[in-house]
Amino acid sequence: MTGHDLTTVAAARWATAHDEPKATPATVPRPFHVEGSPTLAYGANMADGVDGTPLYVTGLVRDLSGRPVAAAVLDVWQADADGLYDSQVVGDEVRLRGKYTSRADGTFCVQTIAPLGYSIPMDGPVGELISRTDISHYRPAHVYFLITSPGQHSLTTHLFARGAAYLYSDVLFGTRSELVVDFDRRPPGPTPGGGTSDVPWLSAHYDFVLQPRTDRPQPTDEGR
Ligand SMILES: [Fe+2]
Are 160 and 142 a contacting pair, CB within 8 Å? Predict the structure, then answer.
């Protein structure tokens, strides 16, 4: 393990201290993010062929004044039902990630599977440090979003399932109460995006609020 985890912890703390009021809290940078994910249609399944409980995340992208943001790109990625990211399982193959675009009314619909929490690597300096404390080294289940739109600052954040294990002992301090959402269990039948599910599925809803660009110098994620 490199200093990546240390910078992740530092950046998470930076974000906690520097969020603008009202905007969706930024959290960690982009662990396990891969460039070039495929572009997917509204409601398309980014978990095609991966076992797990179907999860639909719907919501709105809007700006600080409440206006819907159309054509925002939501680059979404997550771990699978075993807590593993695609780069840990299949190398360069695309798995459990995709880019969705908000519609004219700002709405989006992501179809995926429920993620699972996981342990951060415990074989490096951060692991050694944490093993000497009573902090849990497990992260609660989450789905990452990198949201970009001209005129708005890009937002990297993640959503957590209410009731997930380790939610409030998160080792990377990324869990913010504003980012905890209900994963409501629904019976087989119609799903968001116009499809149907033969099995029970989960529904989550979240509105992302972006900060408009200003002339003020902003930090970037470059090099983290
Ligand atoms: Fe993660």
Answer: yes
Ligand 1: centre distance to CA 92 (Å): 18
Over residues 133-158, the pLDDT tens digits come to 777 777 888 999 999 999 899 999 99
Record the tokens describing residue 80, joined without a space. Answer: 């699978």
Please check whether residue 11 is in contact with residue 224, taking contact to mean a CB–CB distance below 8 angstroms: yes
What DSSP element (H or E) covers 9?
A: helix 4-18
How many angstroms does the Cα of residue 16 sit away from the middle of ligand 1? Answer: 17
Distance, CA of 178 to CA of 193 (rounded, Å): 25
Å from CA of 159 to ligand 1 middle: 10
Strand partners, 145: 76, 157
Measure the CA–CA gap between 71 and 133, rounded to whole angstroms: 45
